[in-house]
Amino acid sequence: MIWFEYVILPHNKIDNLIQEYSGLLTDSLQDNGADGNRKPSYASLVGRGIILNYLIEHGWSPTKLKDLKVGKNGKPHIVGFKEFNISHSNDIILVGFNDSGPIGVDIQFHQKVDFSAFKGIFTTSEVKQINYSLTPIETFYNIWSSKEAVSKLLGLNLGESITNIKIFNKSFSFKDIVGSIYKFNLKEEYTLTLATLNTSDYEIRGYEL
């Protein structure tokens, strides 16, 4: 089973949210190498807040959050806990949990894009998809978000692997690895992508603060 939990954050409430979460979560950030003299980002705090809430709801000790580590290429994990992944863009923070294997999630807020800057990064086929699309911005982010989600799923360095990640309609391939791609319409002008190595049922739960 795959679970998505997300928070939509109005910008005028960010400071209050940081203050609310800091008492619970700053220790876990410091334990994992964050600079104690620098104010943790709201995304870091709220992302860990979602994980903390999930731990408590499913019978885990809140102190398990202190076991959170960041692996190669920035992929987070908690030893002895299920796979999860975090993404944030603009005013949405998303955490995906997977009971049955690794997971990669990515959310992108749509902005103007200079497509010429990506000609050497996207494949010829992907560039054609964008150029001939009736909605090129949406098509671009569908491809980009998918590559991001796959790189996070597999713990890859996106800059070194992006041209080798092939995106299809509902699947991907990377060298001899194949998996599934899911797209979700969470909010207008956002693209949300999930990448897994298996197919699974899913549930989405969100909070708008």
Explain what the structure shows.
The chain is an alpha+beta fold and 209 residues long. It has one domain: Alpha-Beta Complex (Ribosomal Protein L22, Chain A). Helices cover 31% and strands 30% of the residues. It is built from five helices and eleven strands; from the N terminus they run E-H-H-E-E-E-E-E-H-H-H-E-E-E-E-E. It has helices at residues 14-31, 42-57, 124-131, 136-154, 158-161, and strands spanning 2-8, 68-70, 76-78, 83-89, 92-98, 103-109, 165-167, 171-174, 177-184, 190-196, 202-208. The strands form three sheets. Strands 6-10-9-8-7 form a five-stranded antiparallel β-sheet, with helices on one face. A four-stranded mixed β-sheet has the order 4-5-1-11, covered by helices on one side. A hairpin with a 2-residue loop joins strand 8 and strand 9 (177-184). Helix 1 (14-31) packs across helix 2 (42-57) and helix 3 (124-131) packs antiparallel against helix 4. The two termini are 26 Å apart.
Count every helix, treating DSSP H or I runs of 4 or more residues as helices. 5
- Strand proportion, as a percent range, falls in 25-35%
State the separation between the terminal residues, measured CA to CA.
26 Å
Instruction: Please write the string of helix (H) and strand (E) elements.
Output: EHHEEEEEHHHEEEEE
Structure classification: alpha+beta
As residue ranges, the low-confidence spans are 33-38
Number of strands: 11
CATH class membership:
Alpha Beta
Mean pLDDT: 80
Overall tally of domains: 1
Shape designation: globular
CATH architecture: Alpha-Beta Complex
Instruction: Going across the biggest sheet, name each strand in turn.
Output: 6-10-9-8-7
Radius of gyration, taken over Cα atoms and rounded to an integer in Å? 17 Å
Remind me, CATH topology?
A: Ribosomal Protein L22, Chain A
Residue share in helix: 25-40%
CATH superfamily: 4'-phosphopantetheinyl transferase domain
Largest sheet: 5 strands, antiparallel
